[in-house]
Design a protein that fits this description.
Blueprint (H helix, E strand, L loop, with lengths): L1 H21 L5 E5 L2 E5 L1 H57 L2 H15 L3 H14 L2 H13 L4 H14 L3 H14 L3 H13 L3 H13 L5 H19 L4 H14 L4 H13 L3 H14 L3 H8 L7 H13 L5 H13 L3 H12 L9 H15 L3 H12 L5 E4 L2 E3 L16 E3 L23 E3 L2 E3 L11 H15 L16 H7 L1
Helix pairs in contact: 2-3, 2-4, 3-4, 4-5, 5-6, 6-7, 6-21, 7-8, 8-9, 9-10, 10-11, 11-12, 12-13, 12-14, 13-14, 14-16, 15-16, 16-17, 16-18, 17-18, 18-19, 19-20
Length: 506
């Protein structure tokens, strides 16, 4: 509506101006090559307008004729670019789906239409990766790294290729260079992994601090990594610098209260310094959250020189904090064996080995029962039976990382090198569980009698002496039960690393 009013106003203004010119008296004379032309102002104005329009039309026609070749070439380039962009899209899809031939055809079309464009080079790199041409892949990523706009992309690709080739130093160099340009999650993780793999815990801790400051990792992840690294440093310091080790491990325990190695080491160092009350309080707090045999050992042996009865009393105190957990019962049973209170040891273990219990006794439970039998009655058949059951019993909780089972905690996974990968869990066994467990009976062991569910010593030995080969076999059974047994554990399937796709996400 406003445009209509403006148009009408301009039309009225033009009419008024034309009427004013028509009302003006006089003539306009033009002499050209001896001829004189006279006209009124209105005619002169109209002639001027017509001449201006004709000149404008002539100039437009001339410009159109002169620009036609360039316009035709531009239209051809635009069509070629459009085809290249379409081929680029199809090529990315083909490379992602593993269609090598389609990816190669699209890569040729994209390179022809886009030249050295980063996306075209990325498609070439992905196609070369799919074809297994490592040299072409590295060369393409090197060309990407030469362009300031795609430098980090090229460095990421070179980093991945260097890792695939096993060149850890080159991979670290590329990651460090990329991290200096612009902090990225992959570069920060690569620097942390490199320092951790070389056991340079101080440099790894500095990398964690830098990643946290740049918000490449969240706060819980950063705290967990700090705790793991400080625990690793404290373990290395050991007795060489107990004060510094204690400081680091206490900080680790504050950052990750569920990190049992940190709590156990902190309590042990506090006890060495004579601060038994604080050490006991730290273990008691951790025990309520997650009972662990390492915590039990430190707590029971907190005061050097204590008698077996004192250690048993301390084990009972600790067990009250998590009375329903099997670790508490096994802790008391172990201390009772040392104190030679076999009645208490059997009574404590009874709920764990009861035939009506929902779970079968684990290897450690069977070993404790074997130790009870051996300590009270000697090397009887019942002790051997418990050892045999231990060799095929379900596994207890252990430190597990990427399918690897360890009796001791480590800061890194031995498979992937991931920091803080070990978790205290029950390993997954692929082997058959074997026959259902049944409690031993008197018929199976004539040398012992069962009185109210508790084996008592038989009359003077009627059993034949144990031969040397039997002792050897028994020792082998005990060693197999107390150490790690082979398990069929399938690690998680990890897809091949695709630097192009990952870099687009970052």
């Amino acid at each position: 509506m406003i445009r209509l009013f403006v148009f009408l106003a301009l039309l009225v203004l033009g009419a008024v101006c034309l009427a004013w010119v028509a009302d003006q008296p006089g003539d306009i004379a033009i002499t050209f090559r001896g001829d004189r032309y006279e006209m009124t102002p209105v005619v002169a104005l109209c002639g001027f307008l017509v001449a201006a329009m004709a000149l404008t039309l002539a100039l437009w026609l001339l410009r159109t004729l002169l620009s036609t070749p360039a316009r035709i070439a531009g239209a051809r380039r635009a069509a070629q670019r459009e085809r290249a962009l379409t081929a680029l899209s199809k090529g990315m899809i083909a490379a992602g789906s593993g269609d090598l031939r389609a990816a190669q055809r699209a890569s040729v079309v994209a390179a022809k239409g886009l030249g050295e464009a980063p996306l075209a080079l990325l498609l070439q790199a992905q196609t070369a990766q799919l074809a297994g041409d490592r040299e072409a892949t590295r060369a393409t990523f090197a060309r990407l790294a030469e362009n300031p706009e795609s430098r980090t992309l090229g460095l990421r690709g070179l980093h991945v290729e260097a890792r695939r080739a096993g060149d850890a130093e080159a991979a670290h160099r590329y990651a460090l260079e990329a991290h200096k340009i612009a902090p990225a999650t992959w570069a920060g993780a690569a620097l942390l992994e490199h320092h951790s793999a070389n056991a340079d815990w101080a440099a790894a801790l500095a990398s964690v601090e830098a990643n946290a400051a740049q918000r490449l990792i969240d706060r819980p992840t950063a705290d967990r990594q700090r705790a793991v690294l400080k625990t690793a440093i404290a373990q290395e310091l050991g007795d060489r610098n107990q004060s510094e080790a204690l400081k680091l491990v206490r900080e680790a325990a504050d950052l990750a209260p569920d990190l049992t190695p940190a709590v156990a080491l902190a309590a042990r160092l506090l006890a060495r310094n004579g601060d038994l009350r604080r050490a006991a309080k730290m273990i008691e707090t951790a025990w309520k959250a997650m009972p662990h045999p390492d915590l039990a050992r430190v707590y029971v042996d907190l005061r050097p020189g204590d008698s077996a009865s004192d250690r048993l009393a301390r084990a009972k105190t600790l067990a009250k904090l998590a009375s329903d957990d099997p670790e508490s019962q096994m802790c008391v049973a172990r201390a009772a064996i040392d104190a030679r209170d076999f009645v208490l040891a059997r009574r404590t273990m009874a709920p764990l080995i009861d035939a009506t219990a929902p779970n079968r006794p684990t290897a450690r439970m069977c070993l404790i029962m074997s130790d009870i039998e051996e300590a009270e009655h000697g090397l009887t058949g019942l002790a051997r039976e418990w050892l045999a059951r231990a060799s095929r019993a379900p596994r207890d909780k252990a430190w597990v990382a990427d399918g690897v089972i360890s009796d001791v905690w480590a800061p890194l996974s031995p498979v992937t090198g991931q920091l803080g990968a070990f978790r205290w869990i029950t390993p997954v066994e692929k082997l058959s569980a074997g026959a259902p467990w049944t409690p031993p009976s008197e018929a199976d062991f004539p040398q012992s009698t069962l009185i109210e569910g508790r084996p008592e010593a038989a009359p003077p030995p009627t059993q034949p002496p144990v031969e040397d080969d039997a002792l050897t076999k028994l020792a082998q059974i005990r060693a197999a039960a107390r150490t790690s047994r082979p398990l069929v554990i399938e690690p998680a399937i990890v897809a091949p690393d695709d630097p192009g796709t990952k870099l687009q996400e970052h």
